[in-house]
Fold each of these.
Amino acid sequence: MQAREIIKKMTLEEKAAFCSGQDFWNIRGIQEFQIPPTMVTDGPHGLRKQVNGADHLGLYESVKAICFPAGCALACSFDPQLSQAMGEELGKLAQAEEVSVVLGPAMNIKRSPLCGRNFEYYSEDPLLSSRMAAGTVRGIQSRNVGSSPKHFLANNQEYYRMSSNSVVDEQTLREIYLASFEGMVKEAKPWTVMCSYNRINGTYACENQKFLTDILRKEWGFDGYVMTDWGALDDPVESMEAGLDLGMPGPAPENAARIVEAVRDGRLAETVLDRAVERILGTVLRYLENREAGAGYDYMAGHEAARRIETESAVLLKNEDAVLPLRKEDRVLFIGEYVKRPRYQGGGSSHINPWKISSFWDEAGSWENVSWCQGYTDDPADEKAERYLTEAVELAKRADKVVIFAGLPEVWETEGVDRRKLDMPENQNALIAAVAAVKPDTVVVLHNGSAVAMPWIDSVKAVLELYLAGEAGGLAAADLLYGRANPSGRLAETFPLRLEDTPTYPYYGVEKEDVLYREGRLVGYRYYNTKKKDVLFPFGYGLSYTTFAYGHLKLDRAEMTDADTLTVTVDVTNTGAVEGKEVVQLYVENASCHEVRPLRELREFDKVCLKPGETKTVRFELGKRAFAEWNPRTQDWYVPEGVYKIQIGANAAEILLEQPVGVRNAVPPRPDFTVNTPIGEILAHPVGKAVLEQAMGEAMRMFAGVASSNQEEPGIMSDAMATATMTSMPLRALLSFSPEVKLSQLEQLVGAVNQAIMGN
Ligand code: BGC
């Protein structure tokens, strides 16, 4: 039976109740129509299906599932096909566990490296975030299970996450925070979207008609249901009106009663309730009709997929004197707890009960020429700390090479709490420095969910960033360290030198009511590049065991309009001795780089695999959006005319090749001159200049004369100053300076200018 027919037979009370969960994890079943309760479950890098006891903080145990690399790692693959492959595994797992929706991907922008959930999120860049998320969504949904990309919108801190108000200007929202969701929604068509806890510019995300309906549905074509984050619902009636469909968790009898009451007393149209029920029910039926009853899951294959995904994602940050890859004959001392018990996931609602944890030592512990020692402890009460350090330094002296597995302890990175600093634990930093002092051939392997400071970077030879690598991360580490695989990850976020350098310093994590996004669009590398700040490692950075060279950057035209498509081709060659993958990154340097427009933005990327000596030509197409910014005045995308640079970068800070392209508007922007428009803007337009000078030349000359003669001390107001003052003066101010001028005359004049421009 179709959703609509069922809805016709449901009572008002049944429909209202259907818009809250049946319990913590299930959408209400409708017995009369043989619709069972259907389960939704976290996400995003595994399945947290709880059967005994439920919570949204990861406290009660969940069934065993594959714990894949967290979003922070996956995004560094720069490979949407890979996130699709992970999504497919999640979809298969969900089918086997009878789960209708996976609550993920988590895809908020990394506004600050301190956000406690950055380990779940993908990037500081909306294009990368949106493409990686689209891959995950496509993968999950290819198995007829829904996904719920979250948390929509501007939920970029954990501090007071349930009540804070993100105050963000429209341009920043459109170009950064909405953009992260936009491409994913349009491209991958998620079955559901989860709205966030916070308010945005004063209105709770779940009550925000502009985002839930006007943009998400009407502009982007979203046709699934919107559910709340757990406990985010404020006013069930206002939310439903705004475009929210499902409040989670449930049951929430009072919310249902309030909806019933609102329909009865005419405050809420019953059709709005029916609409919400239809959206939820339609999605439930879609899942039920495609359920793979009795589907099993191949956990060993899942574990292998987790290993492969991490192998493609880890980032080689430093490798001097080719200290890596290690050779089997090297006598290597491995140091640290994480060698044997890896830190592989974050805390909170994404916490997976792993099927099997494979440590590096499980793989390599029995090999020849390897040894291990503790080195440090995360337990501050451990009295042997001093001894671990001394022992490590002594053993290091006798090894050919040392590899230290370090990172952030789990309690430092968890949902609900933001980090306070960039630093790793002091004892780990001290250990790395002490060991590197006696053994220059020291390698650091990092386990962390977000950027860290590296005070010891100059004294170690190599750094391999694993991030939170999932349950098979230890195997991937062995593959990469010993050269069975070639690192190909690139940083999806900037590693700053110091916390004080970050765009949101010093106000991030301090504001709990109104959280002002003062940095605007200058998020991540957009900030560091524009402000010319040095960083530890830039966005897009990563090394390989081979080398690549670029050439023949070609644009198919030197001039274009914003209605055209620019085709860009570039050759990339593997100039080293082993096969490797390169992430080709295309940035556009903006033409009109005034104070707040980012200097350069990632507009395309592709990952290519090259054999030694092989060259491939990579092709990109750029349309209007690659050059556009949001114009809040016209409520539309707009390309400032000028010369843009098409750049191929090794990363966001290192441009290897560039070519200019002139971009004009195919259709000149609609004039919207009013009597409040600054005179300079009207004069800047040829038609405006002609009309204005003819009609108001005298008045303007009078003003300029008045301004420059009206000085008590000669020299204070120069002619240049008078002109500048007039340039920024609204047209209507002429009324105050020239008694002959009439308001009606000015109104007629701007009308004539607007019309003349349109007529041209
Ligand atoms: C988190 C969501 C999660 C939900 C259910 C909330 O606390 O913010 O990401 O899906 O709990 O566990």
Note: The two ends are 58 Å apart (CA to CA).
Amino acid sequence: MSQLPAIDARQQDSITDQQAQFFLDNGLLLIRNLINSAELAALQQHTQVLVDRAVQGIPEKAPAGDWTDEHDVHYRRHSVTGKITPYRIEYVIDKTAANKALLGHPFILRSIEKIQGRNFLPTWDSMVFKRQGMGALIPWHRDGRPYDQSRLTIDPTAAAVNVDFYLDGSDMTNCLWAIPGSNRWPHDQALARIAQLNSSKEFSTDGAVPLPVQPGDVLFHSTLTLHGSPAAQSQLRRVVYYEFRPIEVEATIGPHTPQYIPLKQKVLLSCLRHRSKADYAADEKPFEYKPDASWAFPADDGQALGGYRFHHADYWRVA
Ligand code: NI
């Protein structure tokens, strides 16, 4: 891999065509200084409430293995201390105002449009965190299986893009590691390498690059890029993950059913409205969501959605 391009969100208002191509080739892109200080403070404040509640929710008696509670919090055992620790919360857009406004971030949406085209859809929103002193290990993985390429009309790397918003910095004790270019590996090769990397007791960084970041930086990663991070005992590290997929792919292959599409389009429009009212976004040029006419859904009537939590399982396709 050539070096990751230096991208500073204060100097440009979207990624460039060349940077989009780098993403397709390597499955990674790092954007510095994307979230301004006022927005970052709001996100930190709102998500701290979620982290605190997750910690309070640690049960006296833990189920065996990993599990999820009624507040969408995932728990697992910390590999260093052996104690139960929360590490992930689903549907964060439903849970905080700052996360709603964040989905409308114009730099992000213009960049996703460049990678996926104008017909894109927000498909996932979660927060993964390493608790202070008790950061869970995230083993090496791909975020999902690749699509059947014979049915795909878009580059597989563009077909599912994760945007990772760092609310806290990371350093060599707790940062993400990834293998650039692994987004292009056949799935068998990826699984073999994942098994090899995860076979050692310590977190293996063989052939990988570290990606330490500052608060407010953002990483784009393909769901096919191999990535993981070590167990840590350092400071809190929160990362909000928003995933995007092209509507055409979602409509024809999934993973969600077609009914999911207009609902999530409405979530996006509602979040754009949230952003338009946020003080910290007052100086920016808002993103205009304009999918092709075939994907324009019944007009955005400005009505409240009645919630932003569309449970994946309720819209999942049977393979
Ligand atoms: Ni992942």
Note: The chain has a mean pLDDT of 93.
Amino acid sequence: MKMIIAVVQDKDSPRLAQNLVKEGIRATKMASTGGFLHAGNTTFMIGTTEDKVPQVLDLIQSSCRSREQVVTPMSPMGSQLESYVPYPVSVQVGGATVFVIDVEQFEQF
Ligand code: 2BA
């Protein structure tokens, strides 16, 4: 059993959710916030068998696009507001940031 954690842009989230359902792959969607941009994104938790991992990764890749964003980041977490001067930066965000983790035990009661 594997747990795939995928952080995707909100714009790609409905397409990925739809494609996962279409393929019969179960997932949990969570609203999340990027630590750098402080912009909303979506985190998918997908528990699946090891043999389906490549299929899920393909689905994520084909559902998510990389986009350039020009943003003025808010103060970094934990910094002093007075010493922080915001300036616009251009960053390439996504397609998706994906972690594949071994699941030690899986139960459904
Ligand atoms: P954010 O942390 O808001 O980052 C958005 C984008 O800003 C990143 O895109 C990257 O291009 C840039 N960026 C992030 N940290 C930076 C830094 N210290 N200096 C310069 N540029 C920086 P992605 O790499 O595609 O990441 C998209 C989102 O995926 C991230 O949103 C974060 O929510 C998540 N993420 C990325 N790497 C992660 C990691 N190692 N662990 C946990 N979450 C991660």
Note: The pocket of 2BA is lined by residues 7, 34-37, 39, 41, 91-94, 97 (CB under 6 Å).
Amino acid sequence: MADTPHPPTNAPDFAIEARGLDKTYAARKKAPAVNALKGVDLAIPRGSFFGLLGPNGAGKSTFINILGGLVVKTGGQASIWGFDIDAEPRNARGAIGIVPQELNMDPFFSPMESLELQAGFYGVPAGERRTKEILEAVGLWDKRNAYARTLSGGMKRRLLVAKALVHSPPVLVLDEPTAGVDVELRRQLWDYVKRLHESGVTIVLTTHYLEEAEALCDTIAIINHGQVVACEPTKALVRRMDQKTLVVAPQSELAAAPAGFEDVQAQLRANGALAVTYRTSQHSVEELLDRVRRAGVAIKDLSIEEPDLEDVFVAMTSAQS
Ligand code: ADP
């Protein structure tokens, strides 16, 4: 038995690992081929709340759909919970629950029936089904016998979350889960997803909402044009942009940006304001204001502009395109 390969341990370091993942959608009649993923390397740590961030068309859904077995990759490797998606597709698929983007569901099944069917599909024995627990958790127990077509958009989305959970996967992927969901339902959904995360489920969230990713995710990968352009802890990603801009409205119009700001970026804006962009780790506002005064600029008004993930995102994705 010594040469029997060990099965992957129950707790791999990475919930999802992709190496050189490629996807080219073949050309069709009039549409040219699309190289949607170009050698994606991504390691999603077990237990993380991971954000896969990128603009529309970046390749997020393609990546997720390869993991879910809906799209066939054209190159590279991927594993879920240590199971290679080619070598051990059943185990790989059993380890992941995917909440799809679209609200496509059979209108004639009730939430109860949908979950039971899904559990049957995954081969969850009747005695191990958690239908009631899951429906209660997503707030649909009261609606358990209602036709899906009578459910509101938010309820349908929660039903999709419920369906993704029937086989108790250790990895839950939410593909753009809050598009079109109102604020209150969004909050409810996140409360529940946070609880799942606290219970040990690895969460992967794809989104193009930067604020959402910044608020929820501990690690963020940015994907653009089928390539990963950044992948690091959210804080580090934001810190990378530790720059702020001091904006000074002068009492009287300046002809040009004054001297004395060579080590930072100073420019005159079209509205006459002097904008000094600096790294917070290297300069203080105090020091810069002193310099502004020493340059003979009388200050009428001032403000400080801070970057957010949007700036990081724009900087990184524009560098690639
Ligand atoms: P995202 O989820 O980030 O919006 P997608 O993975 O949906 O990005 O799309 C990545 C690229 O692949 C886009 O250019 C898109 O038009 C293309 N694409 C997606 N699905 C298909 C498909 N079934 N056939 C052809 N091209 C596709």
Note: The two ends are 52 Å apart (CA to CA).
